[in-house]
Amino acid sequence: MGYGIEFLMALIILLNGARTDLLDMLPTAAYWEAKRVTVSEAQLERDAGPDEENGAIDSLVADLASPEFRVRDGAKKSLKGMGPSILPQLEGALNSKTPEVRAAAVEIAREFEARTKERAVRRLMAIRTLGERREKGALALLKSLEESKEMFVAEYAARAVARIEGREWEAPDRSASIRGDLQLLPRHAGIVGQTTGLASAPITLETLLNATGVPGNGEAISQGTSTLLRIVERTGNVRIDGLTFALSEDAGETSGWEIVMLRGQFDAAALLASARALAHPADGNVRYSNELGIRVVQTDVDTQIMFPSDQLAIVVMADEDKDRIARMIAMVYALRAGHGTMTTDKEVAGMLKGVDTTAPLWLTGRLNAEEKKAKLLGGVDSFALGGKREKDSLSVSLRAEGEDGEKLKVSAEELNTEIQWGKQTLPQTASLAPIGGFLRTVRVQSAGRSATVSGEIRPDLPNALLVNFLPLLELKVPSDDAGNGAGQPIAVPGQ
Q1: Which residues contact residue 336 at a Cβ distance below 8 angstroms, ignoring those fewer than 6 apart?
Q2: What share of the chain has pLDDT > 70, as a percent?
Q3: R_g of the chain, CA atoms, integer Å
Q4: Is the Cβ–Cβ distance between 57 and 89 less than 8 Å?
Q5: Tens of pLDDT along 60-94?
Q6: For residues 46 and 42, what is the distance between their CA atoms, to the nearest angstrom?
Q7: Rounded to 5 degrees, what are φ and ψ at 289?
Q8: From the CB of residue 337, how many other CB atoms can be counted at a distance below 10 Å?
């Protein structure tokens, strides 16, 4: 079952204990330079603060139906000048029975929606910059924003206040909701796992550039900032707190299913609208649907993404349409009931007894006959992997069990051979050197019917993995309404 592996790996890599949002990857200096803004405290407070309230727009909306072009055009320009904050007041005009009013309102709303994300990004970057500059004069504004209901604003304000006051900011503990996602999975999973991240340090454009072996100079940072901005100003900020994974017990090259649940914070509607950036359908058409009230997009012939809320996205993959649809419907009913059929699966319950499900990374499972055809896995019947957060790294350990001790020994020897090859060849390429460094920490031991593998994930490894996986994803930058940027691959400077 090879589908979705690159996508899944990139998502896993992006998760990290250092609490990196997508927007946090952008250097604030590069952002303001891209916007051609000379930064000052007054400007930052204006951008960070709430939009000014506009008065009633009823008279202007009424003018949209005027028989005189001059009046209609003037009303439209005045409404556009008020900005996206009037969108709620436009609701009546969007449903007007007068065609001229409805058409003008739709035009204005579309323009505002395109600008809304750009404005939201600018506000968050202003808040973050105030914190980085330690602008004490902005504390009153920032503290008022800690009560904001706008997505991400309250947390960014709290982070900025803590930084100005010289305090450490602790992200809210969301582990309970992530662990709860495990209960939503269906029965007959052969492998299950969860992670809240590999990295212990933030992933930024600079660290990604350094991972390529090319220093993050001004030109490269500017190029990366421009690319990310074209994406984030359409989708908004994205935070992924945790990932839940399941692979069916009958998984094979053309059989079985795979489910990935992403828990975090994002604008589901905006991601859905920009889903073509991930899409590679055979006929070139991205398909949208609605499954019992849940929005779904098919991004590939075997992959569909469900968006139940702004905190949860579910990726369902299967080669057979019937398997994929069955899993999607099962997830819909699990969301309604608050649990899936996995809660009645005694075999999965038995597997879970061997792992600490509160760990930042864990994976456990049983391998089927087709999976064991690989020489590396031939002697493995079951396994359990766990991760433990250290000061600046993540220590991982895996225990494999096999009924045939000799076959398990062969699997361990095969793994050692692969590790030795990696240790010798990977460091020769700058972007792969951290992976070679990780392999140097790996230890494999085999005794009887069990084998153990241990290693240490250091801060530079997630950056190296992400740099090397991004080109495989072939992600395209979404175009704007004029088609600008359409089809452009996401550039990784230095590749």
Answers
A1: none
A2: 85
A3: 25
A4: yes
A5: 888 888 888 998 889 888 888 777 777 778 878 88
A6: 6
A7: -150, 180
A8: 12
| Sheet of 239-248, strand order | 287-291, 294-300, 303-307, 312-318, 257-265, 239-248, 189-195, 361-366, 382-389, 394-401, 450-457, 443-447
For 276, the token pair is 């073509």
- For residue 22, give the amino acid letter: L
Q: Over the range 284-299, which residues count as b (16 or more CB within 10 Å of their CB) and which as e?
A: eebeeeeeeebbbbbb
- Tally of CB atoms within 10 A around 16: 23
Give me the DSSP letters along 45-80.
HHHHSPPPPP---HHHHHHTT-SSHHHHHHHHHHHH
Q: Would you place residue 432 in the very low, low, confident or very high pLDDT band (cuts 50, 70, 90)?
A: confident
At 187, phi and psi to the nearest 5? -70, 170
For residue 33, the tally of other CB atoms under 10 A from its CB is: 16
Alpha helices, DSSP H, located in 214-297: 218-235, 268-273
What Cα–Cα distance (Å) separates residue 34 from each residue in 123, 147, 229, 234? Answer: 15, 30, 9, 16
CA-nearest of 287, 259, 209 to 8 is 259
User: What's the Cα-to-Cα distance from 370 to each of 411, 451, 464, rounded to whole Å?
Assistant: 15, 21, 31
- Check residue 343 and give its pLDDT: 86
Return the amino acid letter for 98: T
Give which of 55, 97, 60 is closest to 78, Cα–Cα.
60
CA distance linking residue 308 with residue 157, whole number of Å: 27
| 3-class SS of residue 297 | strand
β partners of residue 303? 300, 317
Confidence (pLDDT) at 4: 43
pLDDT tens column, 321-361: 888 889 999 999 999 999 999 888 898 999 998 799 999 99
Contacts of 48 (CB under 8 A, 6+ apart): 123, 126, 127, 130, 138, 141, 142, 145
Higher pLDDT, 18 or 88: 88
Q: Give me 144's structure tokens.
A: 């008022």
